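Thread: Modeling a multi-component assembly for a lab meeting

Hi all, long-time lurker, first post. My supervisor asked me to bring a structural picture of a complex we are working on to next week's group meeting, and I have zero experience with this. I have the sequence lines for every component (469 residues in total). Could someone generate the structure of the whole assembly? Inputs are pasted exactly as I received them:
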Amino acid sequence: MSSYEEIVSRLRTSFQSGKTRTEEYRISQLEAVGCFLEEKRKVLNEALAKDLHKSVFESEVSELSMTRTEINFAINNLKSWMKDEYVDKNLATKLDSAFVRKDPYGVALIIGAWNYPIHLTLIPLVGAISAGNCAILKPSEISTNSEKVLAELLPAYLDKDCFAVVSGGVKETTQLLEMKFDYIFFTGSPNVGKIIMAAASKHLTPVTLELGGKNPCYVDRGVDPQTTANRIVWSRFYNAGQTCVAPDYILCDTETREQLVPAMREALERFYGKDPQQSPDFGRIVSGKHFQRVKALLASGKVVIGGGSDEEDKYIAPTVLVDVKETDPVMQEEIFGPILPILTVENVKEAIGYINRHERPLALYAFSPDNKVVNHVLDCTSSGGFCGNDGMMHMTLISLPFGGIGNSGMGMYHGKYSFDTFSHHRACLLRSTGLESINTIRYPPYTERSLGLLLQAIETKRKGFCSIQ
Ligand code: NAD
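Re: Modeling a multi-component assembly
Sure thing. I ran the full set together rather than chain by chain. Output:
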């Protein structure tokens, strides 16, 4: 037996014992994840700083606090989430009990990305635990320091019979994916998402794919340039642009662009100083390979802000590009770095046309002084999530689902959505054993009379007036 087979088999045996199903057990494991965050806070912040030059502020907000919020929300609501949901019945089942049981899937595999290495592994884990599953975590090997903390320190907090952390890259993940899992939750690129889905299909394993892509940001005429610039700059350059929901490019007319560029310059200097490389708050590209990829994208269009880089430090200056064409390299792939191209369009119609000609994004942003314009962009496009007049803020709400559509992914999580994602919604009907005479209408020999009675008992009638002639 390979070590992976051994882990999966151990977890499956524990799952089948039923130990993960009780509310007390789930809460104990959720609390254990909370303890890990609390007690290893310093080590986690240090690892994130080493991996991405992530400031304590950004680590605390987007890695630790968001995970803690998920844990607390799950603990606060678990009892009601776990309850069977009783549903409406038809005449034929009036005396029976019909409900949806939220059953755990079994053994889940959670594969994470490197840009928020703690958040992207532990928040899905909160969902898996809440729903009563066992789980294997496979953090990204690119964020090496965070991977090490998760692999070496997290298991001591969790029940080892039900949870495990596996380290490694492509080779290890490929081997792991040969195993049969009951659920796979993947965060990463669309290309690898296809590999995961193909591997899952061999065992008919259901998947959630949290993927990426290019998130458009439309800026309408008449916006307040400074407020808009502050919000776009913050969301684009947070974590040095390595955020799946960061605005990837701006669409606006030339007049708006002329107002936005100086306002963005002003915002960048206010946020990161005259030399962002010296700022403790500005991140670094995660690896030398990723640095080379992002640096090559600086050659598109014309640099109007930033443009500098330092390979040794994996630093790319926050950069704004203008005169960018649809065919430029920077518009062919998700940038995932601190570069913001501006494409000019005549009006909102052209912007919507551009957006709809491309893959459906994970997030879509529209800024306008007129709510009708924001709503118009919302109505005429499709994306995983949408935020009007700001960037990324929609994902701070635990009450909203988080996930993509089309090329940006499938499935969703956060808050109750995580619990539902990791639960099989089992349809249950507990019938009464009496009144057998009523049941005879569905048994052969069939008659016209019994058909009429049966249809009366089971068919849903349309409400109100029928307008179809
Ligand atoms: P990636 O797809 O390269 O890697 C993600 C995970 O898959 C890693 O754990 C990695 O070890 C594993 N992996 C890589 N290649 C594999 C292969 N051939 N076979 C099996 N496993 C493999 O993604 P990344 O570079 O870590 O992250 C960046 C991408 O993730 C971007 O596209 C970004 O938009 C996306 N992302 C999405 C979200 C989201 O919530 N939707 C969040 C963060 C990042």
